[in-house]
Amino acid sequence: MSLRVDDLAVHYRTTRGDVQALDGVTFEIADGEIMGVAGESGCGKTTLGKALIRLETRMKHVRGTVSLDGEKLPIADDRAMNPYRYRKVSLIPQYAMSAMNPTRKIGRMIRELVTAKGVAYEDVRPELERRLRLVGLDEAILGRYPIELSGGMKQRVVLVLATLLDPSLLIGDEVTSALDVTSQKAVARALVEFRDREFVRSVVVVTHDISVLYQMADTILVMYAGRLAEKASATTVIDQPLHPYTKMLVGALPKVGERYDDRRLTGIVGRPPSLLDPPAGCRFRDRCPLAMARCEEQPPFLEVAPGHQVACWAVA
Ligand SMILES: Nc1ncnc2c1ncn2[C@@H]1O[C@H](COP(=O)(O)OP(=O)(O)OP(=O)(O)O)[C@@H](O)[C@H]1O
After folding, report:
1. Any stretches that span the bilayer, and where are they (predicted)?
2. Above 0.85 for ipTM, yes or no?
3. Phi/psi zone of residue 93: left (φ > 0), alpha (ψ -120 to 50 degrees), beta?
């Protein structure tokens, strides 16, 4: 077992009270698994990714544990987490490629980053060049500035850099957003290849675009208002979802070959509850077509078939 998250709860401190961004989050990721995290904006996807590597100052670890390869990660202790970051758990943050320093050549930027982690650039340079070639980039790009690279090239550089020390877990937040479809595919292919070559053992890919996950994820975890709704293989989530929220999320995707005139994209009516004071019970019940009295009680996240978990009284 690569990653195990148990009953994780993380809040943001705000002047209006605590935003309960993650609540009772429990799941596992197997060795070699690429797990996508999907759900509407504000459901806690980015918070989950951050909680596995660095809690911001406003984030409060309320309860729960995270274990990687059988070892408990000190997620609530920023300093104690330091030795794990980059070497064992690596992050490609949202907008990483836009955050590259425009005044630094790519090679110098990578040198500074690995040196800060106590690694000699010369020691990793041959492997760096080999991996750049693997993702279709010439080593000459090390002598170029970020502005000289396309978005897709920059994102492949970021992937190579994030996995250079063979971390056990990679967290990628919106790694393919803001790229054209061809570049999205190239980045998705590179990510899968890096997993296949064991440059990284397991991967969490956070995205608001569930269709992107179809290209690269083995499994998909669907979140709703800070809690887990469903986890299953990517094909099961897309083709045979069980949770009413997943059904709506997947139903809102355009289908190949379907004309806009034939079926308007519906979207999901209503809004998720505020996480400042979320209601007790199932948080989806106000928008759910299957809601019943029992939904005032929180449904457990139960395995309904091997590798398929759902939190819904109407299903379990
Ligand atoms: N720094 C912060 N301070 C206070 N609340 C925050 C902060 N960051 C996020 N939140 C709140 O925490 C909840 C989860 O946010 P998060 O960014 O994890 O969601 P998300 O699913 O990643 O959304 P998106 O797809 O828009 O990035 C939301 O209610 C959000 O408003």
Report:
1. none
2. yes
3. beta
